[in-house]
Amino acid sequence: MLINRRRALLGAALSITLLAAGCGGSDDADDGGTAAATTVSEADVAAALEAGGNIKVWAWEPTLTKVVKDFQTKYPKVKVELVNSGSGNDAYTALQNAIAAGTGVPDVAQIEYFALPQFSLAKSVIDLNTYGAASLDGTFTPGTWNAVHGGQAVYGLPMDSGPMALFYNKEVFDKHKLGVPATWEEYAAAAEKLHAADPKAYITSDSGDAGFTTSMIWQAGGKPYTVDGTNVGVNFADPGTQKWTSLWQPLVDKKLLSPVAGWSDGWYQGLADGTIASLVIGAWMPANLESGVKAGNGKWRVAPMPQWESGGKATSENGGSSIAIPEKAANKTLAYAFMKYATVDEGAASRSANGAFPATTKELGSPEFVGKEFPYFGGQKVNEVLAASAGQVVTGWSYLPFQVYANSIYGDTVGKAYTGQGTLQDGLKAWQEASVKYGQEQGFTVK
Questions:
Q1: CA-CA distances (angstroms) from residue 203 to 51, 289, 376?
Q2: Distant-in-sequence, close-in-space partners of 421: CB < 8 Å, separation ≥ 6
Q3: What is the separation, in whole angstroms, between the first and last Cα of the chain?
Q4: 345 φ/ψ angles, rounded to the nearest 5 degrees
Q5: Looking at the domain 17-161+320-375, which fold is it?
Q6: What are phi and psi of 374, to 5 degrees?
Q7: Distance CA 221, CA 244 (A)
């Protein structure tokens, strides 16, 4: 089963003019000061479930199919219409259009963490503290819980997460006598050794990906984005960013990275035939390998994400989604009941059992989850590594409130460095300048 991965990014067609328009002064708690008072009690939610009604859920995540079925069995008076409105560009364009039109707005919408600020700042999704969401503090991993916050406001419930780890082809590593790299220095050395031994083989592929770049900077302690309401900072000259470019630029210069684009047919083929020997990627990857790289069965293993310092224990997130309630949803109370069921209650265990990587500390710590053996990975208890990574995500990371747009122009800025048009640091400077310019045009104060 293919589950949530880093998807195609929105292009400029998805305007955030509405966001800037929604950024004016307000005394609402949504502006980030203190959490909104609970106005809908658990008793109110229970009463809504008993009364029944209809809700519409827009989501692409396949494990929700069973969740919807089970939810309706438990609450037979509630009818849930699950609609796959697309992912990435398609999903957010459809949601933005529905919100702008004021018709056809879903009651629940799946929104990736990097895109959520765009909708929350526009007040297009509600603060779930109205339903007592603040009481769920501690239920989710710190990284995902932080990702759904804007100040004290909670704009979504974490559905899954993507703490990073090293996925590697043990057969290839053994053949070329490569040790499993514990540090990035060792990873770079392995890249040289592998490609020298087999010019057709690469340690990994990277043709330029915004999500991978920001995740790597995140793990390195970089904080290029600062966000305080409509005041935004973009600085890719920070030490964490430079730490990453000093590692990655030599790999690009020496052509030690496969130029095959991620998620393409050639990429899957490279993972299958061993010419792409590893991936540093989110914890949702096992199901993608199992379904998309069948020839790799038994060959792949998972290890902790390489560290910047020997003995370190720092990771970052790559991918993952929340579910949120649009401000114009017709049935918010039933929507919240479904969200809590899907992310905290029975639905969380169901989704985990069917391939989603959980965001809840309960699921991550359960013996059944941690002790699960994966035949594809040679019987390895993969979740031991992935659950540990989830608890080591570096805190304090922020995305831009227009990250969707920023990511869409990555290829025209940083992406050029992968084809020899300047360095990564040059590209990051161009990305910074273009992001600042766009943010200012949309009404943000950007520096």
A1: 57, 17, 20
A2: none
A3: 43
A4: -90, -140
A5: D-Maltodextrin-Binding Protein; domain 2 (3.40.190)
A6: -110, 105
A7: 10
CA-nearest of 207, 203, 295 to 256 is 203
CA separation for the pair 93, 70 (Å, rounded): 29
Asked whether 121 and 230 are in contact (CB, 8 A), the reply is yes
Alpha-carbon torsion, ordered 266, 383, 283, 258, to 10 deg: -30
Q: Are 267 and 261 in contact (CB under 8 A)?
A: yes
Please tell me the predicted confidence (pLDDT) of residue 3. 39
* Residue pLDDT, tens place only, 209-251: 999 999 999 999 999 999 998 999 999 999 999 999 999 999 9
DSSP 48-106: HHHH-EEEEEE---TTHHHHHHHHHHHSTTEEEEEE---STHHHHHHHHHHHHHTSS--
Q: Please state, in angstroms and rounded to a whole number, the distance separating the CA atoms of residues 181 and 26.
A: 51
Task: Please give the helix or strand (H or E) that residue 228 lies within, else none.
Answer: strand 225-228
Distance CA 277, CA 193 (A): 12
Q: Of the candidates 106, 114, 43, 28, which has an alpha carbon nearest to the alpha carbon of residue 319?
A: 114
User: Rounded to an integer, what distance in angstroms lies between the CA atom of residue 361 and that of residue 364?
Assistant: 5
Domain ranges of the chain: 17-161+320-375, 164-317+396-446
Q: What is the pTM of this model?
A: 0.90
Which residue, chain included where needed, has tokens 């050395």?
Answer: 189
* Tokens standing for residue 103: 């018709």
Structure tokens, 77: 């008076």
CATH of domain 164-317+396-446: 3.40.190.10
Please give the pLDDT value at position 37: 54
pLDDT tens-digit series, residues 18-67? 344 444 333 333 334 344 456 899 999 999 999 999 999 999 999 999 99
Token pair recorded at residue 196? 């020298």
C-alpha to C-alpha distance for 202 and 190, rounded to whole angstroms: 9
- Is there a common fold for 17-161+320-375 and 164-317+396-446? yes
Give the residue carrying structure tokens 């290890």.
303
